[in-house]
Amino acid sequence: MLVGFMADIPFVVSSRYIRTFDDYSRSSGGRWAQHDIIGDKPVLEYLGPDVEKISFTMQLRADQGISPARELKKLRRLRDNGKVFPLVIGGNMVTNNMWVLESIDESVSFWGKAGSILSVKVNVTLKEYAGGGLL
What is the pLDDT of residues 21-47, one digit of tens each? Predict the structure, then answer.
């Protein structure tokens, strides 16, 4: 069952393998400029909305039909190439804008023979790309 996708990485749950996410969080805010006033409190000016950020955790395990090393390579390439991509969850785009993979943090839980990764927890941080990437 397809849960969603980011770039060419699908989030899928099936009887043969699991590639999905946990601990999903989304944050956003406003942009404010502060103008200092001599002898008085500063005045705030609303500039507009800031870009949104999403973070989640992926547990990539060989015993769930996933190659952790291959998946890490895809994630690193997506981060390092600076490409923008759609983020779709539940059949809907998360925003009207594209996204970038801002960072990944990897924590290997289990190693196999010859140093192969059997299980890795990956914390993914995405940032909304509002630079003309409207769909």
Answer: 899 999 999 999 999 999 999 999 999
